[in-house]
Request: fold
Amino acid sequence: MPSWVNRILMLTAALSAADALSVADAAVPPSAPTYGVHLEKTWIPMQDGVRLAVTLYMPAGAKAGERFPALLEYLPYRKDDDEARRDFGTHTYFARRGFVGARVDIRGFGTSEGTPPDREYSAQEQQDAEEVIAWLARQSWSNGNVGMLGISWGGFNSIQMALRKPPALKAILAAAATEELFKEDVHYIDGVFHVDEFELTMDLDEGRSGAPDFSLDESVIGPRMNSPPWSLTYMKHQRDGAFWRAPLRPIDELEVPVFLIGGLQDGYRDSIPRMLEKVKAPIKAWIGPWNHGFPNESDYGPLYEWRDQAVRWFDYWLKGRDTGVLQDPRLVIYQQHWHAPESQSQDVPGEWRAESWPPAGLTPTTLYLQPEHRLSSEKSGSGTDRLRYVPSAGVEAGFWWGELLTDQRPVDAYSLTYDSAALEDEVAILGLPRVTLQVAADAPLADWFVRLSDVAPDGRVTLVTGAGINGAQRNSMADPQDLTPGKVYQLSLDLHLASWVFPKGHRIRVAVSNALWPMNWPTPYPMTTSLMLGGGAASRIVLPRVPVHGPEAPAFAPPEPIEEPAGIKGVGGGGAAWPGEWTVLRDEAKQRSTVIWTGTTAVSYPWGRFDHSERLTYDIDDAHPDTARVRGDSQYIQAVTDHVLTWRGRLDVSSDAHTFFYKYTRTLLRDGAVIRTKSWEEPIPRDHQ
Reply:
């Protein structure tokens, strides 16, 4: 019997049959901030002798013999410098409420010993995590219960560890995370090769030693500087299969209770409806209008406090305090209303609704792609629309299926578009729109991308959601097959999770293209594709239509102040390099396009200043899509007491019709003089990409 079942039975038995109060009425408030905080930095020994560095955020002022649960956050993102400000604001909050925050650097990163693993979510990372959880559970201050929490990487490995079921792990919180690595992570978005800032950051981070010493000792810096870049490894695995499945177990095996937080502007949001459908363990889900950040720090609002909700969750599962969290709606989601296409930080209009999954009142509504570029619920006569492949199309659709974007009309100009009539009433959707296309191409490789948009009466086009499909992976992402030129294929795909209300008088648009550059690497052959309309298996979209207003959701608190650590301060904002700035250069005469992305950040520490800059340059030739190229440069400048260390990484990925050409160089300088450098260069066959 799963441990959470015993937990619920114990709480149920504790309720007196004569008690007239409901469970919700009997709920206790979440733990109050009654403790001080003190930090302890120590080591966690692994069985092979490597020590992992941990910072423990301890409740101060505890009573004699008082025991606390631990909350583990386990990352490669350097707890003693890069993430020190963020970690402090997160874990002091929980420590003041009677939890021990345990912030651990993954082996080979930050202050932890050892060589970096050969990939994200490696077997070594997971084995170490099990040892860390067991170590936390047996400490003298521990009550034996451990929770995991984190965003992005920390959310990914929280889910993975919950699936491994270490005995002391009682509950997790995963934000902006997914369990689907090949299709949804940033290496092969929708199964299509992708390069962005993450590769620059992680490939260079492998080579850095820990703060504040930044050791140059050969035993420390040698294995790190020589560790192969992960981007090279990922390029050798261009289809789904054993490599991508190795860190995972089926999510329907999940028994550890899970609290999921997602954003409608985040690329990992589809994991939540999947888990709501498949997971039998207790699950609480909260999906807001946010991008890749916690609800109190997203670029898009409205913003809310999440740590108070986390305390309610972990109080229940780790302390045995009935906070009423199991009486919460299983899903609370933000129903987005129309907003103008604009990428700047903003509050998204909308309303909260408390839902089951699938949503109450769901009415799948089919709209057919029609001749004369119409979109209608009525089937019509057959027809064929053709589209010349423009590989440079797509920058307006962003770098992944997240973030708010500018007007979609520029990319629509290189797409087949189908518009409904002006709506006579509001239309609300909530779920994953399902698309079926009848297509053909005159080349052996082609991708299709579908975007669902809202067209305002003044012509502005706001992206609602979208998705892509690698035509070679039409039957299997693990067993791709070339297309037969001229043959008609039926493609089916789900667009990414959408929440939207189309206003009266607006139009619904479906746009179909064969490129979204630079989100996805272009297929190598010039071509024209065909989209068949009408017939027995008509090209269509099925919208997950719901009532415009859903069940009322509970109120959330506004963000609370975030504690700042002493001696660490952002310089000029001090945030992350992303989202940075984009520049698009177009040479119409030569039909070439260049997209340049740059990002910078700077932070001052007691031991010196850190400056980080990155640049990505994406080049493409519409007449020769096989010759696409991405060049990336990343630089870390770390000023310490008596010298300056500079880490530089240079990535160069290009292609021809049959081969990717990979180059990466990692360099370390002291006071401007090169003291170490290591390069990797390798041709990699294209595998249906």
